[in-house]
Each structure stands twice: as structure tokens, then as C-alpha cells.
Amino acid sequence: MAESLYLGIDLGGTKIAAGVVSVGGEVRGFARAATPAREGVEVVVRAMAGVAREAARGAGVSVKRLAGGGVGAPGPIDSVAGLVVSSPNLPGWRDVALGRLLGRSLGLKLSLENDANLAGLAEYRFGAGRGCSPLYYLTVSTGIGGALLLDGKLVVGARGAAGEVGHLVLVPDGPLCGCGNRGCLEALASGTAVARRAREAVRRSVVSMLTERFAARPSRITAAVVADFARQGDPEAQRILAEAMEHLGRGVAGVVNLLNPERIVIGGGLSSLGPLLFDPVRRAVARYANDLASESVSVVEAELGSRSGLLGAAALAMP
Amino acid sequence: MAESLYLGIDLGGTKIAAGVVSVGGEVRGFARAATPAREGVEVVVRAMAGVAREAARGAGVSVKRLAGGGVGAPGPIDSVAGLVVSSPNLPGWRDVALGRLLGRSLGLKLSLENDANLAGLAEYRFGAGRGCSPLYYLTVSTGIGGALLLDGKLVVGARGAAGEVGHLVLVPDGPLCGCGNRGCLEALASGTAVARRAREAVRRSVVSMLTERFAARPSRITAAVVADFARQGDPEAQRILAEAMEHLGRGVAGVVNLLNPERIVIGGGLSSLGPLLFDPVRRAVARYANDLASESVSVVEAELGSRSGLLGAAALAMP
Predict the structure, then answer these.
(1) Of A50, A91, B94, B187, which residue is 20 to 30 A from B205 by alpha carbon distance?
(2) Are both A227 and A312 inside the same structural domain?
(3) Residue A141 is part of which domain span?
(4) pLDDT tens digits, residue range B34-47?
(5) Total number of domains in chain A
(6) For residue B167, which residues of chain A lie inside 8 Å, CB to CB?
(7) A-B Cβ pairs (cutoff 8 Å, strict)
(8) Partners of residue B155 in chain A, C-beta under 8 Å
(9) DSSP H helices in chain A
């Protein structure tokens, strides 16, 4: 009997990635392409189908022989109804039944989930959260998203929107967030927030290595730049990053109190900051979460990197 | 065949209550007594056994004929290990296997859970959260506690500590909390916090009806007093309460984002404030939670009052 293989497709605002994945998490075929984001739903679905078929060819199978599959997409997703409700990076998308549309085109039943939930599922199944329950997965990148798993099952909530901690308001009247409110965790501790604080400091001419280097082009500052300067000893970069990570830690401690997770896995671009992120977050958990909950949790870095989305999408269909 | 009946025992800092409960939530026998809190574990367990036997006599059955039972207690409880870890109201209690001790004395297997979790379970099974999933139960009283249920099962987490939102830090450097941190939800929005803010205003001689009436004895101010004065139109009482309930709403909105619950049930003393609590909390959920999650949740008052603890304790043992 042939091994069961699963299709995972990850739709991002800039690229589409697809993989054919074994039950053990091995990627047997992989393909990707740019997302034709401005060309509307139909063109994007056609491009996704093309990428999926290419991944299948890479694995030496036809899509129709696959045992099942899943699709991940960003933005608010009603995974109960199977709809991409809207998406900041996909103009004009409104209540798109992406799994069904793509599934029909490929002749394969596909479930739909948001990308952070899929990354969390992948980390549970193949990565840093293997076998942990409750597991909370947090992604810290341009935005902040999350996923909650109990006994390896995604907790999606009443409309598929569960898992999110990015818009927890942690500072009343804090910095403006993309959502329209102020002081959300995402506005305090995402990569975007860290870069913005550093640009503001440079524009205010705060004395620092950052200002010396970027006075003429503050818009080039990214969170990675701030981290580099912090490592080199720039006090202003250190201050900005420490403040952001203290906020992140308070948010994580809130999750620890509410869920008493066995493990918190942190992924996304900023998880590569290493101790600059994990030390303050672990300190905040020890300080702000109750003793029982903080003693029983480990906070670790994600293992699967940028393929976690498609791995999780494939895992959606696995038994 | 005789109807199955269950024992529920609720240990509080000041009183012990026990009930014999049917699967439908009817209390067939009830008893209570003061908690001999200062006399140590053994005396308290003996008193609890006495109250349980009295409740059984009231129902016309012997304890040994009951189908099962549960015990609720305040404070941090490791419900996975079955231990009262400690309790602010029960001096000297440390890792007490309360369910096993009392069960041995009564000849009945008893599970142990914290009181907020049991009130949440009772509201799911018999009250305002019937059949809802995810269900989040919040109790707002002298402290703030909570419980999370998925498909009617308590989510207790890795060590039985899940469900708590009272020590979510919502205002950095906010008012000091009993836990030692600052700006916890409990320090901002509990009955204790509301009364403390009002006393501070009176001591600062803020012009208000509250100050007129309580200048000579600010210590008599309770949250219920503040609510009365707010209803009578005192602007200072209204301001204090509105600010506290805005914080409560931000906390609840955080839970809504994280869990996408179908329903939030609010119990505890302050839930009787009615619109003074529910209006600002619902407004905050609409404002701070994401659209999918805020559209799919209803925020309602608990139905079971002070018997929810023993009802939930009995329900712990029900199939």
C-alpha cells in the first residue's frame, strides 16, 4: 500500500507555498510562486492550484491520489464556515470560501484555517510543541497572532477566531494600532512597533548609535536593525527592545494565567532575537503569572520556520 | 431504581455549604455551617463531613448511597494532583489533599476543584451558560476569578490553574494588587478595588455625595454603596464605577479575542450591578475584540447565585 501523503498550501500576501507532506512531517514535494494579490480571487485560486500541482509533481504523485489537504490564509478567517472574511493583503476579498473553491479546482477536499493556527498545529505535531497540552503558539512578526491547542486539537471557538492575543489592550491610551484602538500588544511589541519606536527616537534625535547611523534615512530601520544595535551595546536600542519585550511578556503571562499551558512556543521573525526576546518574556511570566501556572510552563522557540504554515495546512487533514 | 444523587460541598473562608443534588440540578438537601478556619485542616474536614451528612439527612439518604460528589475550595488549587496548594483564608493550609481526606471520612470518592471553576461548570450545566461552547465564566466579587469550558468540560490546564484572568496586568504601574504586582484586573475592577478608589476620593475630599455621607467613616464604603450613589446621580461615584468597568471590559475583550467564546457568564457580587456593569463591558467587547469574535459572543448575568459552588461540585461527579 502506498504511503498516505497530504497537501498543504499556504497563501500569503506576497507568496504562495505548497508542499506534499508525509504523516511524519517530511516535505516530499515543494513549490512556490508570487501571489497575484491585486488580480482578484479567481486568479489567485488558479495560481494556488498551479503551485499545488507543481508540489505534487515534485513528490511524484498526482493531486488526486493525495489523502487530503488544507489551506492556510492570513487575516480574519471564519474557519467554522470555511470563509476568508477579509484580508488586509488581498484587496477585495470578502467571505471567500477559499478551501471549497481551490478544492473543486484540484479535485481534493480542502479545509481552511488561519495561518497562525496552522503554524501552531505544525509545532504541536512536528516541532517545538510536540505532545504538549495545553499548547499556546505565538507568532511575533510584523503582526502578532496565536493559536491554542488542547490535546493536539486547535481550539477555534464559536466562529473560528480563537487564539488571538495581538489586540489585547495592555496600555490604555498607548500607541495607535492598525485595528483603530490604542495600546494593543501588537502596537507595543510587534516588529512593526519596535521599528516605529526606533524611528521616532531617531527623528527626535535621541543620542544613540541608531541616530548616528540612520538620521538621514530612519525609514530603513527594522526590528532586526534595532536588535543588532542592542547587541552592540546601544542603550537606546536596548531600551526600546526591552520595553517592547516587557509588554510581550505581560501578554504572554496573561495567556499563562488564563490557560495554564504546558508550553508556549514562540515563532515569527522576532523569535530569532533569541535571549533578547526569551529572557524578558520568561522573566515576565515568572513575575506576572500565578505560581502554579508559571512553574508548569516552558517558553521555547519555534522549530519549523517559514514552512510551518504549509506543514500545518497538511496536518489539518491528517488523522 | 432510585434516582442518582450527588454530593456537592463548597468550602469558603467563612462558611461551609453542602447540597445533595439531582442530575437536573435540584437541591434535595442543604446544610451549612461556619468554617472553623483558624483551627486547622483536621477540624475543618470534620466540620465539612458533618455538614455533608446533614445535607444527606435533609435529602433522606445516607452519604454512602450517593452516586458521587465533589468539593470546591478557594485559592490556588492543583486540581490535577487534587491539592489545595494554599489559601489566603485558611491559615496554615499547604498542599492539602482535601478531596481525599474528606472522601475517606465520608466513604465517598470526591474530586476537588477551585470554586470559580465549579461555579462555571454549574452555569454550563444548570444556568446561564447552558450548552454554550466555548463558555467563559467570570466572577467579580472581592476578587476576580474565572473558568473556561469547552464542550461542557472544564479546561484546567497543566496543573489545574487555568481560567484565571484576575491578574492580567492591564495598567503598567497601576494600583497595587494583593498578589504583589501592580495594575492587575483585580486591583482595577474588583469590588475591593471599587471601594478602595471611593475611599481614596473621600479622603481626598473630592466634592461628592459620597464624601458628604462618608467623610467621617470612609472605611464603611463598599462597592454596593458606590453603585447606589452612582444610580442616584453622584458624578464621582459614576466616574469611579465607569473607570473600573471599562477596565473589566478590556479584560473581558481580551478573553473574547483569545477564546472566541459563544457566551460569557458573569457572576459574583458585582454582577448584581446590572447595566452599571454589563453596559460598559458589552461596549468594551464591541470596541476591543475583533469583529468575528465580538459578533458571536453574548455577555450575560449568572443565574445560580451563591449555590453555584455546591451545584458545580456535585456536577463534577455527574456523567
Answers:
(1) B187
(2) no
(3) 131-302
(4) 999 999 999 999 99
(5) 2
(6) 257, 288-290
(7) 156
(8) 134, 150, 259
(9) 40-59, 98-106, 115-126, 185-189, 191-203, 209-214, 223-231, 235-259, 275-288, 291-295, 308-316
